[in-house]
Amino acid sequence: MAELADLGALDMLATWDQLVMMPSGGAEARANQLGALAQLAHERATGEEIGEWLAALEVAQLGDLDRDIVRVARREWERSCRIPADLAAERSRAHAEGQESWRRARANDDFAGFAPALERNVGLARQYGECLTQCGTGPYQELLAEYDFGLETAMLRELFSALGAALPPLAEQVRAHSPRRQLAVPVDVQHTAVRNTLRRVGVDQQGWRLDVAPHPFTAWIGRSDTRLTTRYSDGNVESLLSSLHEYGHGLYERQIDPALVRTNLGRGTSMSIHESQSKLWENHVARSPAFAEVLAGELEGAGFPLAPADLHATLTAVEPSLIRVSADPLTYPLHIILRFELELAMIEGELAVIDLPAAWHDGMQRLLGVEVPSDAQGCLQDIHWGAGSFGYFPSYALGCLIAAQLWEAMESELGPREEDLRRGEVGPIKAWLAEHVHWYGRRLDTIPLIRQATGRSLDIEPFLRYVAPLAARTP
Amino acid sequence: MAELADLGALDMLATWDQLVMMPSGGAEARANQLGALAQLAHERATGEEIGEWLAALEVAQLGDLDRDIVRVARREWERSCRIPADLAAERSRAHAEGQESWRRARANDDFAGFAPALERNVGLARQYGECLTQCGTGPYQELLAEYDFGLETAMLRELFSALGAALPPLAEQVRAHSPRRQLAVPVDVQHTAVRNTLRRVGVDQQGWRLDVAPHPFTAWIGRSDTRLTTRYSDGNVESLLSSLHEYGHGLYERQIDPALVRTNLGRGTSMSIHESQSKLWENHVARSPAFAEVLAGELEGAGFPLAPADLHATLTAVEPSLIRVSADPLTYPLHIILRFELELAMIEGELAVIDLPAAWHDGMQRLLGVEVPSDAQGCLQDIHWGAGSFGYFPSYALGCLIAAQLWEAMESELGPREEDLRRGEVGPIKAWLAEHVHWYGRRLDTIPLIRQATGRSLDIEPFLRYVAPLAARTP
């Protein structure tokens, strides 16, 4: 387990380096290096001797922690053993080729050029899910389980259908308002403000880095070696949101019980919980009226004075749009609901790949009320399906829902956070998250963790309460 | 072989990152990650199945390249199989602890505190060398072989004794001159000059990085991903020398025959040849009167005008001193000769660890004519013995000798480089080195490579011809 954890950290380091530091000439060698790591990790994770170890451990007297380690190890080992080596190898090839095909297709707005690769990925994903299917779970639920163990397709259908009914009227309400405003803040001002804001919430030089990456992400190379990335543009203040979003990911990994380090439990439990941690800092801290005072103060300190209310209005402006990654906090989940519906239909064989553009068109009209002018700005905008990632999208919307639910639970225990946030005081938030969410690592899966932290299962009401004022506000 | 090459590259990446990018909090996790890599690489390199593969390959019809791959693989596999796993593990522990002990001892000028760790390292090194000894090679030669296969202890004794007799009178000659002058050039000027100089010799953004590190080194992560480091100080212009020194290491790895990539032959053949490549660029390019015009031009372009002759005088000033890493090009090998004599005597049991400080004292007096005021500035100055590296030091002096010999061979083939260097034209030098040295990778060991490139075995005359003018020059 320790060795696998170490190999995982090296993989993250090599990936971080590739995206942040590596000269472009290193790409070919890096692909080989990452391939060698993946191959070794796969070999070690699926060794036949593991079955014997597990059988021996399952009849041994173990403490609670060791029992959890063995339980999760058994689950993962059995899943990996059910995948034929041929299928695993063919999937990796198909995903690498699919990404290339997607890149070309998007650049040329050529869905037909991408369709064969997508068809292949869908077929392989279905086959993969079928290998894992037990007791009628079905292939989509098994794909979901790769990112979020224990989530059920039926539950997502229900949640997303309720959300897909509740949000469009709110988005419609906003249409009456003026369009989103952007603030033009010089990059060096943003840079200083981001550094100082992060320093306030605990990002020090001993245990963190902050770098620039075209698509911001976070790497946790060690418990005290967290690497955030963000991006800066003169035309907007996305860096303020994105850096706190990434901070949420980083903080989660740092606050896991140190006893879990180098075990199979020593990392975030699922994609949706991870995304809930980033969304909590993005939506509930960075986008709060109270914290806007802190952010505006930092911008002012860096030479760009503005009213906190204006900054807050910019950070929370709502406007239905075409592109997921730049969507506002209210309409963002609608982009995900569309993707969930479509990928589920493709995996279940109810939507042919060739019909995807038309289905996308209809869905954007129905959910967001926008016209899709091209596939490049439509179903070709995301890399995920080209890379063979089916069942990943839901975590983005679940993260928004879970963040809202955790935030309400936290405020009902600690009281409103407004006064603290106005002063930039986030210590109690970090402590509450550590105790109720982070500490467990992978000992609790998504739904048990939510129950444990909030006293009930996942529901959409807290999120609807969070977005209501965004829709109601007149600009 | 490809997998081992990939693991080696990941090790280099993780080490580079640790020294250049990693926040200090990552140290503990990084030690585990590097440990896991080393463990895996060792396991893969010593697998019993390799013996069967080699036996089958040795009776197969193979081309020249494949025969070389098998020959070197056989040699390394047999060496690694002769080391008991216990001994290997105990050495790693002793080396890690020895480094820590050395660090404390140096900080407190406390040789007695370091002696037990050094004693342990010497004992383990001797034992290690004895496991490998065959046909009377002896333990020291086997330690040497870890860095420089094929070098013989007797040959080094002979070379170093001749060099140790020839250099002190030259150093004595310099004593009459005024002391070394340092140039105080602002760090930002050096920074610009270094970047521009490196760009002239071919360092582009697509395939190289240049960063700052307290102890400059080079990492070759991929054939087109070379990472140089240097350091800057207001008080001297060491960065000009150090950056070209590191460039020499980097260029070597980039110009190896691409057919050798991801084989066991696809890297520099030995420590001494590697060091010859860095020393060639440091001593024969950066320290030449002709290239001083280029360097002075770059400093001037960055806002610091000075006469090329003054810069050259600074870069080549000679003054016997206490510390190896800041020694001048003439006296540098004397520091190495002392270390060679002492480590050989310790491994052969002719010098007790406890007598090391006195022997150091005597040697510095005899070879460099300087008085050693403390062990911290004496036998505690280098990390190598604390880290268990015996047989490594000679490569530093051999590099100087080989560089001079290669330079003469190159000039006798291409004609004097002076005119080209004055214009910063290094293309023919790079091409000559590629053809005669770099291309071979590990297909030729140190001595055969020198013979092949220069027509004779290693000798000290070219180096003596190189340093004579440095000693004769009046400041």
Which features does this protein show?
3-stranded mixed sheet; 475 residues; homodimer; Neurolysin, domain 3
Question: Explain this structure to me?
Answer:
2 copies of one chain form a homodimer. Chain A has 20 helices and 3 strands. Helix content of chain A is 63%, strand content 3%. The first copy, chain A, has a single domain (98-475), classed as Neurolysin, domain 3 (Orthogonal Bundle). The longest helix of chain A is centred in the first third of the chain and has 24 residues, at 85-108. The N and C termini of chain A lie far apart (53 Å). Chain A is globular and about 65 Å long. The first copy, chain A, has a 3-stranded mixed β-sheet with strand order 1-3-2, with helices on both faces. Chain A is mainly α. Chain A has helices at residues 2-20, 27-45, 49-58, 64-81, 85-108, 111-132, 139-145, 153-175, 187-201, 238-254, 271-286, 289-301, 308-316, 332-347, 356-368, 394-414, 418-422, 427-436, 446-454, 461-472, and strands spanning 208-212, 218-222, 225-230.
Describe the strand arrangement of the main beta sheet of chain A, using strand numbers.
1-3-2
CATH top level label of chain A: Mainly Alpha
Largest sheet of chain A: 3 strands, mixed
**Based on the structure given, which CATH architecture of chain A is correct?**
Orthogonal Bundle
Overall strand count of chain A? 3
Strand content of chain A: under 5%
CATH topology of chain A: Neurolysin, domain 3
- What's the number of domains of chain A? 1
Could you say which structural class the secondary elements and strand pairing of chain A correspond to? mainly alpha
**Largest interface, counted with CB-CB under 8 A?**
A-B, 37 and 37 residues
Q: Which of globular, elongated, flat, extended, rod-shaped describes the shape of chain A?
A: globular
Uncertain residue segments of chain A: none
- Quote the average pLDDT of chain A: 95
Using the CA coordinates, give the radius of gyration of chain A. Answer: 22 Å
